[in-house]
């Protein structure tokens, strides 16, 4: 028996090698040995020996041309999209922009041409590939087997699988090997099975669409509002259960017929082209008051295609409004923030949060101390939301903002006739309205002395007495207080009751000023910029960031947040310089001379001096840089946390897996890395590589 014939397949990328190799093995099994090579992994030209060489693309053939001899039998494979996965495209909304991601511009454009030729002309495909400077902001990406190249931030990725060798190339391979007569029946059978599999998936897609329509109908039937829709000819194609109950026409009598012929009172009176959308129009039908909305349905050409009509009875809406008013949350007495909204990694600040979390689980009064703008009210919200009372009202009162003669009636309420202008029937105070919840007394140091005794009664006896009343009212409320004043000093000056001070001071949380937690400034800058859709890492010049880092921030976090809002507004997309900063910060920076060492005397610090200071003030960035460097060194293979811990250890870092998890989450929130699902590892994004490059340039 002679030496078995050999086909050598050469592809780019391990996944392509495996898929195309399996396709050729399936076709040639038993007659020809198939060896598959990957040009970017352990490739050597000496391996290009065989009866037939199949290269996966024209660029690969060009790269390998110097190694081919006159005897080399070479075929460039024509590739096509695997039709078995086309059903995935049918689930995407038509007339939308979709990025088509592939390894090169030519292959991306070729895939787009294939899809258009297959009839997917309802989609706007945009070629995206590594090295593209302006990546489109698109939510959906389709890729033929290159999901790792999809830019970060894309919400939906459809992987059609690697492009396979098309049937014309397979026939040419059999001809070159003189196997066409022998293998033609196998190729026909394979192709027939292929078509049957595609048909099954298309049928399933149609079934899925039918199930989706059924689901939408079910949802509409659960809606309390009446919902109807008519097309351009006036025929009804949506008519939900609520509409059936109101008009007493069954759906089978209405669907597919002109609404004007059945329920003319609700049908639009004008032709479709003359209609305009209408909101909250009061109408009467059979003696019943309705609130009606008519919304035009417009096509891609912005021309009206139909009308959606929704309605509800005004009596029903008024009943719902009365019920909502009885719900405490409708008054706005809801805590909006949680501990997740308190950002920072300063040890003193984190210790403060841990203490606050511990206090939150109890029912004891809490006193929050801190300078103005440090986030005392936000912490009060978080304490309430982490407490057993989180589902009950949260009422915030600023004791310094209300006039003293009004504060007592607001807090404790009043009886009818208690004073001139008192509401008939009296009024419940905020302590009563906070029943079962928490009341936050901001700037309690400004509470009038005469009201402090009444507050002490609330704390100790759990009861209040309204102005002008003769009886006490039991209450169930937790008190969270805050002040920027020194209460002990106020006690010494006779401005604050000593017994109230000791009652409140037992459970105290002190928020550090921003000047004390300067290392958190980059974190807070990043957080507030993210809220405005901007990126911290290229928003400021080095000198502008240096000015912000050295500024003492007398207004603390509130001043920093307002500064960011100002800078986002005036920057207009360009990088913020020192001259763009608010006047107070610029003036402080001009007079400030940072400490210098060695030959640097006076003046402004260089970027290298500033970089050293960033290392000191923001030590976590050292870990972030190390992690990004490691991930950048493994572009093809995502790395798990254990692998990252080991790599860090090799560099001299002794860091736990928990710390690595925390830093990766922070990097992912900045879109510098992508964390895969269970055991899929983490990889660096293009944005992460760009940021790493910028940081290398800085220092």
Descriptive labels:
single chain, Rossmann fold, 6 domains, 25 helices, 41% helix
Strand order of the biggest β-sheet = 12-11-15-14-13
Can you tell me the residue ranges where pLDDT is under 50 for at least 5 consecutive residues?
324-331, 595-610
Integer-rounded radius of gyration: 35 Å
The domain tally reads 6
Morphology: flat
Structural class: alpha/beta
User: What level of helicity do the residues show?
Assistant: 40-55%
Kindly report the name of the CATH homologous superfamily of the largest domain.
P-loop containing nucleotide triphosphate hydrolases
Secondary structure: number of strands: 26
Distance between the termini: 68 Å
Textual characterization of the structure:
GO terms for molecular function: ATP binding. The chain has 699 residues and is an alpha/beta fold. It folds into six domains: 6-80 and 169-178, Rossmann fold; 83-161, Rossmann fold, CATH 3.40.50; 223-316, Beta-Lactamase (2-Layer Sandwich), CATH 3.30.450; 339-510, P-loop containing nucleotide triphosphate hydrolases (Rossmann fold); 518-598, Helicase, Ruva Protein, domain 3 (Orthogonal Bundle); 620-698, Winged helix-like DNA-binding domain superfamily/Winged helix DNA-binding domain (Arc Repressor Mutant, subunit A, Orthogonal Bundle), CATH 1.10.10. Helices cover 41% and strands 17% of the residues. It is built from 25 helices and 26 strands. The strands form eight sheets. Strands 12-11-15-14-13 form a five-stranded antiparallel beta sheet. Strands 17-20-23-16-24 form a five-stranded parallel beta sheet. It has a four-stranded parallel beta sheet with strand order 2-1-3-4. A hairpin with a 5-residue loop joins strand 14 (288-298) and strand 15. Helix 4 (167-176) packs antiparallel against helix 5. The model is unreliable at 324-331 and 595-610 (pLDDT under 50).
């Amino acid at each position: 028996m002679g030496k078995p014939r050999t086909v050598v397949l050469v592809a780019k990328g391990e996944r392509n090698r495996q898929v195309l190799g399996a396709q050729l093995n399936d076709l040639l099994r038993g007659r020809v040995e198939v060896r598959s090579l990957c040009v970017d992994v352990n490739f050597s030209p000496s391996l290009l020996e065989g009866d037939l060489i199949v290269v996966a693309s024209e660029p690969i053939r060009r790269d390998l041309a110097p190694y081919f001899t006159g005897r080399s039998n070479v075929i460039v494979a024509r590739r096509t999209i695997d039709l078995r996965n086309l059903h995935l495209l049918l689930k995407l909304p038509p007339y939308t922009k979709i990025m088509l991601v592939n390894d090169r511009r030519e292959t991306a454009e070729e895939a787009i041409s294939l899809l258009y030729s297959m009839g997917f002309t309802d989609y706007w495909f945009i070629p995206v590939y590594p090295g593209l400077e302006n990546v489109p902001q698109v939510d959906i990406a389709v890729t033929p087997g290159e999901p790792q190249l999809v830019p970060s931030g894309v919400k939906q990725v459809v992987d059609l699988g690697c492009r396979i060798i098309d049937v014309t190339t397979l026939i040419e391979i059999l001809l070159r090997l003189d196997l066409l007569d022998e293998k033609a029946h196998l190729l026909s059978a394979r192709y027939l099975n292929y078509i049957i599999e595609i048909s099954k998936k298309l049928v399933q897609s149609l079934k899925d669409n039918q199930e989706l329509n059924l689901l939408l109908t079910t949802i509409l039937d659960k809606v309390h509002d009446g919902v109807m829709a008519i097309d351009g000819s006036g025929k009804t194609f949506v008519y939900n259960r609520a509409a059936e109950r109101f008009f007493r026409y069954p759906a089978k009598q209405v669907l597919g017929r002109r609404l004007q012929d059945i329920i003319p009172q609700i049908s639009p009176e004008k032709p479709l082209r003359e209609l305009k959308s209408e909101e909250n129009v009061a109408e009467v039908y059979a003696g019943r008051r309705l609130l009606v909305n008519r919304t035009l349905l417009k096509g891609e050409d912005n021309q009206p295609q139909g009308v959606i009509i929704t309605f509800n009875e005004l009596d029903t809406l008024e009943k719902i409004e009365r019920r909502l008013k009885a719900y405490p949350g409708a008054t706005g007495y809801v805590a909006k923030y949680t501990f997740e909204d308190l950002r920072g990694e300063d040890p003193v600040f984190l210790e403060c949060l841990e203490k606050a979390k511990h206090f939150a689980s109890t029912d004891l009064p809490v006193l929050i101390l801190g300078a103005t703008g440090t986030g005392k009210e936000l912490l009060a919200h978080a304490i309430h939301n982490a407490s057993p009372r989180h589902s009950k009202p949260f009422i915030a009162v600023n004791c310094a903002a209300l006039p003293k003669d009004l504060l007592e009636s607001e807090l404790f309420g009043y009886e009818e006739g208690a004073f001139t202008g008192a509401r008939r029937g009296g009024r419940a105070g905020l302590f009563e309205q906070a029943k079962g919840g928490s009341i936050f007394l901001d700037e309690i140091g400004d509470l009038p002395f005469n009201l402090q005794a009444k507050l002490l009664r609330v704390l100790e006896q759990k009861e209040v007495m309204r102005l002008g009343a003769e009886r006490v009212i039991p209450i169930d409320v937790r008190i969270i207080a805050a002040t920027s004043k020194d209460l002990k000093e106020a006690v010494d000056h006779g401005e604050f009751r000593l017994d109230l001070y000791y009652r409140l001071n037992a459970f105290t949380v002190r928020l550090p000023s921003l000047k004390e937690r300067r290392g958190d400034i980059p974190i807070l800058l990043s957080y507030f910029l993210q809220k405005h859709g901007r990126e911290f890492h290229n928003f400021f010049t080095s000198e502008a960031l240096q000015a912000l880092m050295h500024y003492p921030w007398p207004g603390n976090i509130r001043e920093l947040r307002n500064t960011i809002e100002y800078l986002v507004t005036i920057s207009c997309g360009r990088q913020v310089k020192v001259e763009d900063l608010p006047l107070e910060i610029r003036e402080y920076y001009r007079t400030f001379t940072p400490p210098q060492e060695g030959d640097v005397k006076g003046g402004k610090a260089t970027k290298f001096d500033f970089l050293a200071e960033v290392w000191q003030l923001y030590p976590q960035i050292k870990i972030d840089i190390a992690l990004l460097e490691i991930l950048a060194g493994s572009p093809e293979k995502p790395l798990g946390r254990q692998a990252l811990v080991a790599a860090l250890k090799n560099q001299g870092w002794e860091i736990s897996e928990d710390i690595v998890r925390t830093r990766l989450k922070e990097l992912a929130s900045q879109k510098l890395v992508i964390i895969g699902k269970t055991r899929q590892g983490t990889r660096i994004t293009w944005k992460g590589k760009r940021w790493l490059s910028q940081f290398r340039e800085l220092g």
